[in-house]
Amino acid sequence: MNRIFNPVAIHNPQGRKPDSNIGRILLDMGKISAADAERILLMQKEKGMRFGEAAQALGLVTEADIEQVLAHQFDYPYLRPGQGGFSPELVAAYRPFDAQVEMLRGVRSQLMLRWFGSGRKTLAIASINPDDGASMFAANLAVVFSQLGEKTLLVDANLRSPQQHRIFNLPSGQGLSDILADRAELDAISRIAPFIDLSVLSAGTLPPNPQELLSRSSFARFNQHIEHGYDVVLYEVPAFSTGADALAVATHAGGVLLVARKNRTRIAHINAAAEQLGRYGADVIGSILLED
Asked: Which PANTHER family does this UniProt record tie to the protein (predicted)?
């Protein structure tokens, strides 16, 4: 079975109707006591306030606590800072109401309309240079897709300098390279339990021949197999400046989203990458410009 990593989080198991009573949720979270609830109810009645507003006015809970309760009510999982041991840069997991995450949701909407909405399942996330931010962008994008209820798999196909195991605090072990070399099965995929629709496949053992491994027929078979099990499959691939690995993955994924870094990535290099991808039969869906 797939490994499951389950840090403490407010999330709703599939098939279970969320408890809509904000007081009950705060009690279950340990944020208030029964005596606190009585004080809140009294103020709520006297002042005509909502329960959450009264709780905040009494100083018993914070705005962040109320946001987390609302997320629970609407089955929108996220983590409090420090939970899970994930990278703090995984903003979609820790700070889902930030403007940065709103941008990610905008990208998600565009991709649903222009790519996944037409029945496609796989997309490669590629950058020009290793420090352009593709790893963290891909990780956050995977989280927001899972928050939409799309069964999402993030595959670390960067077999040169993988990062997803670090971002999601996954133990070192078998991954994509081992599957392609027939040394592991699909149970190497890890479910990220706070996000019930998110799974991650780390890169696995670093091979001496990453480009050749990604070009094998075993990758085509792997890609076809996972397309049947997920709604969205995101491949994070090595930067174009490090080799032709991205082309091997893009050929099977069919589409590529290019990630660029403001004031670092040259437009000429983006255009050259897009032209090269086109020659290999991959569609460039668009490009994302990340701020420094």
From this structure: CAPSULAR EXOPOLYSACCHARIDE FAMILY, TYROSINE-PROTEIN KINASE
